[in-house]
Specification:
Elements: H1 2-6, H2 8-19, E1 26-31, H3 40-61, E2 65-73, E3 76-83, H4 90-94, H5 98-109, E4 113-118, E5 123-130
Parallel strand pairs: 1-2
Antiparallel strand pairs: 2-3, 3-5, 4-5
C-alpha cells in the first residue's frame, strides 16, 4: 500500500524509518532524487528486494548499522544494501537461503543483476536495474 500511495522513494524511506526506532541495526537510507520513472512492477520488485534484504539483516546479520542506497546513474538504477554484521557465508552467497532466492527471483523478473558479497565487516547486496531511456 505504501508504494502505491507514496512512490518508490518515499516508500523505501518509510520502510527504513519503520525498522529504525527501536531496532538494531540502525538503518540509514540514502536516496539520490529524483529517481527515474519506472514501471510499477519494477518499483514493486525494488521495494520487495529492499524489504527482504533488511529483513535478512535484522534476523541474521548481528549488525549494528545498515544502509540502503538507491540512485540512478549511467542508465541504471542501483540499489545497495550494506551492513556491518558477521558477513555472508560463501554458501549463502553462492546459493542463498530463502531470502536470497526471493531477491534473485525478483531481480531476474525485472532484468536486474544481483551480487552478494562479504565485506569487511558485513555484507553488500547490490542490485542493478537497466533503465530504458524513455523513462529517464
Amino acid at each position: 500500500m505504501a508504494l502505491a500511495e507514496l512512490g518508490l522513494e518515499s516508500a523505501i524511506r518509510r520502510l527504513c524509518d519503520s525498522l529504525t526506532p527501536d531496532s538494531v541495526p540502525a538503518i540509514t537510507c540514502n536516496i539520490v532524487a529524483p529517481l527515474p520513472r519506472v514501471p510499477s512492477h519494477v518499483e514493486t520488485a525494488i521495494y520487495r528486494i529492499t524489504q527482504e534484504a533488511l529483513t535478512n539483516i535484522v534476523k541474521h546479520a548481528r549488525a549494528k548499522h545498515a544502509s540502503v542506497d538507491l540512485a540512478a546513474e549511467g542508465g541504471v538504477l542501483r540499489l545497495r544494501v550494506t551492513d556491518d554484521g558477521g558477513g555472508v557465508s560463501e554458501e549463502t552467497s553462492a546459493h542463498g537461503g530463502r531470502g536470497m532466492v526471493s531477491i534473485r527471483t525478483r531481480a531476474e523478473g525485472i532484468g536486474a543483476d544481483v551480487s552478494l558479497q562479504r565485506a569487511d565487516p558485513g555484507t553488500v547486496l547490490e542490485v542493478v536495474v537497466p533503465v530504458p531511456e524513455e523513462t529517464t
